[in-house]
Amino acid sequence: MVRNPIRLKNLRARFLPLYVVGVLALIFLPPDPSRFGLALPAIGIGTALRSWGAGHLVKNHALTTTGPYAHLRHPLYLGTLLVGSGFAWLVGGWIAFAALAVLWPWFAFRYFPRKERSESARLAALYGPRFERYRTAVPALWPRLRAWRDPDESGDPVAASGWRLERYSDNNELGTLLAILAGVLVFALRASGGAA
After folding, report:
1. CB atoms < 10 A from the CB of 166, how many?
2. pTM of the complete model beyond 0.85
3. Which residue from 131, 151, 160 is spatially nearest to 73, judged by alpha carbons?
4. Under the phi-then-psi rule, with left for phi > 0, alpha for psi from -120 to 50, and beta for the rest, what region is 86?
């Protein structure tokens, strides 16, 4: 069964400034259609990476080391960075430069180190030496070319069962996909003059 794609936590008041900035950017800075050539591949690759990861991720029940997790530990974060960067490129100009100049350092020096510490501590407590082997062998955000396999264990059969629509839905990725598609559509309409 597919879950409701609307994540109520994304409608909280703390996100209101981001929504306001996005609407104002669309109203006052219509995107240049020539930017889609650079932006859409980043958005597409980021969306695909997030979708691939969400369909493999078994939160709190298994150490997921299959799919993109065999190449990097945080495919959802990397996918989000690519999608966010793609949308910034769509806006273009000084807004894109300012957004990327804020987004990437904030992610690299504030958000990601905090999440990496807390998530690693939780996974180390749950999975001990197996997680430490995984963490040592698999980079956080820069994918390794060859998929990692734990040489000492076959792993968890639940996590190793491949991509599943139920996992994709349980991880609320359908809502993310719909939001990204809606964003691209709005930018495309605005760039073509179809939106006021």
Report:
1. 11
2. no
3. 131
4. alpha
Give the residue from 27, 35, 34, 40 showing the smallest Cα distance to 195.
27
Q: Which two tokens stand for residue 18?
A: 């981001």
Q: What is the distance between the alpha carbons of residues 32 and 171, in angstroms, rounded to a whole number? A: 34
- The first and second tokens of residue 49, run together, are 């990476």
Helix (H, G, I), strand (E, B) or coil at 156: coil
Does residue 119 contact residue 83 with C-beta atoms inside 8 Å? no
pLDDT, tens only, 118-145: 999 999 999 999 999 999 999 999 999 9
Structure tokens at 11: 């409608």
Measured in degrees and rounded to the nearest 5, phi and psi for residue 97 equal -60, -45
Structure tokens at 103: 């987004």
Q: How far apart are CA 190 and CA 38, in angstroms?
A: 17
**Residue in the structure block whose two tokens are 């139920």:** 166
- Residue from 119, 146, 150, 125 nearest 136 by CA: 150
Nearest to 90 by CA among 42, 31, 45, 20: 31
The answer to whether 83 and 150 have CB atoms below 8 angstroms apart is: no
